[in-house]
Amino acid sequence: MIKKIPSAGFYLFKSCFIGLEYPGAESSTRFVFDKLGIDYYDDPRQSCCTGMGMNVDAIPPLPTAALAARNFTLANQVNHPYFATICSTCYGVNKEACEWMTHTPQLYTEVKNILAKVGLEVKKEYLKPENVYHACEVLYEWRNKITDHVVVDFKDVRIATHHGCHFYKLFPEAVVGDPESIQVLDELVKVIGADSISWYAEKNYCCGSGFRHRWLSPELARAAAYDKLVSVKQVGAEILVNMCPMCAFQFDRSDALLEKYMGAKLGIIHLNIAQLIALSMGADPYKVVGVQTHSVKVEPILKKLKII
Q1: Which of 56, 71, 128, 277 has the most CB atoms less than 10 A away?
Q2: Alpha-carbon distance 9 to 28, whole Å?
Q3: Whole-prediction pTM
Q4: Tell me, what CATH number does 44's domain have?
Q5: Where a domain ends, among 80, 100, 135?
Q6: What is the largest CA-CA distance in the chain?
Q7: Which residues contact 191 (CB under 8 A, 6 or more apart)?
Q8: What does the pLDDT read at residue 115?
């Protein structure tokens, strides 16, 4: 369960990593938001949050804060002050950047001076971490309206969920109740009529990526992903639904590697929550959902659902 969120004024915060690896998650979010009549603004001026670089210590706090302040200023210019991020890292970085500038006056002054040079006036009231939401939180708020648009029968599909560290572990205050028992994605899975596996042994485990671990400690990263996916496989899930592009990348792109190094053929299908809901609403699996970008083929479940 999550806290009450606004009914309008969302600034769709796009993810550079989703755009690169799984653009269907972005187009699916637009598709579902449009279907539900959610008021959002898609700004071509929006820039990256720097999360990838910041989390591997390649980018210092000042550029991250400056870009966050710029994006918040643009959002307020168009009267859509509430970020709806598609990526959990964007969610975390933007919240953190607001807190940095709130608690470090010198940093805020530096950022203000930088933006003034490009004709932007940032104001402290723009920089509210509570104004940053994940797109799945918005979908959760509109969950009762989703059923009105479901046209594909998912009742015989077993789905497990993975919320990811950057959503509920970094900011547990966003969740009402025990964040370790989070069910936001599970409730959305139930809304489309699928069989949601609300709990499995490694549900709250990390995907193993941790940005740098995937490259600096590949064996550790693979082992973590393997343990997670074996647990998902054991409970009979056909799909693992995520809300984070790095988690999706770690699981989906690692499937062949896990088969090579661990000797396990897993073949679990990975979908962003917006992709799953878009499919349930009849979105084109290729033009909107972008299943052709996935390493684990999605076609078997599409055939089961008679979508193709």
Answers
A1: 277
A2: 19
A3: 0.94
A4: 1.20.1050.140
A5: 135
A6: 58
A7: 143, 144, 146, 147, 150
A8: 98
